[in-house]
Amino acid sequence: MFFDNAYGLLRVVVLSVAAYSALVVILRISGARTLSKMNAFDLIVTVALGSTLATTILSSDIALVEAIVAFTMLVGLQFVVTWLSVRSKLIVKLVKSEPTLLVYQGQYLHQPMRTARVVEATIQQVLRMNGIATLDAVEAVVLETDGSFSVIQKRDGPVTVLNDLVPESHV
């Protein structure tokens, strides 16, 4: 079946916007760790397109035109969000997570760790994987926006890559 009615197309457009928005909100709420190494919007488009394809193939209730509209909507929404993110700091703030400072100057930052759902054992594992034997040797551990960890060892002189992450109580 190639086309049922205009209502079905409108339903797909409305559901695409609603589902995409809901998935973005859910991923933002769930935090950076949920995304592992995948960019949030790559994950959304990949999963949504795969799911839409499977549903289209397996369900006789979905017309081909509806699936094409859904694909177009998902890719179009992805483009719009990316386009707006490049042009608006507000949009970037709404759709992208921020890096989280978890260790600073050899001290665990427990509140950010709780918020990010990261325990000391995880940070210790990251340190071991980076060949670091002691927390005292660490300037910072950062949970990046893609879910990976960055470890910065202590050095002489300022560490400027942390300027936007250092808590005000440490400035």
Q: What are the main properties of this structure?
A:
171 residues, 11% strand, alpha+beta, 7 helices
List the helices and strands and how they pair.
Layout: H1 6-30, H2 32-35, H3 40-58, H4 64-87, H5 89-95, E1 100-104, E2 107-108, H6 110-116, H7 120-129, E3 138-143, E4 149-153
Helix pairs in contact: 1-3, 1-4, 3-4, 4-5
Detailed description of the structure:
With 171 residues, the protein is α+β, with helices and mostly antiparallel strands. The protein has helices at 6-30, 32-35, 40-58, 64-87, 89-95, 110-116, 120-129; strands spanning 100-104, 107-108, 138-143, 149-153. Strands 2-1-3-4 form a four-stranded antiparallel beta sheet. The longest helix has 25 residues, at 6-30. The chain is elongated, with a radius of gyration of 21 Å.
Report the mean per-residue pLDDT as an integer: 81
Give the number of DSSP strands. 4
Largest sheet: 4 strands, antiparallel
Q: What sort of overall outline do the alpha carbons produce when their principal axes are compared?
A: elongated
Low-confidence segments: none
Order of helices and strands: HHHHHEEHHEE
Structural class: alpha+beta
Q: Helix count?
A: 7
For the largest beta sheet, what order do the strands appear in spatially?
Answer: 2-1-3-4
Name the beta content range.
5-15%
Distance, first to last CA: 65 Å
* Percent in helix: 55-70%
Query: Whole-number radius of gyration?
Result: 21 Å
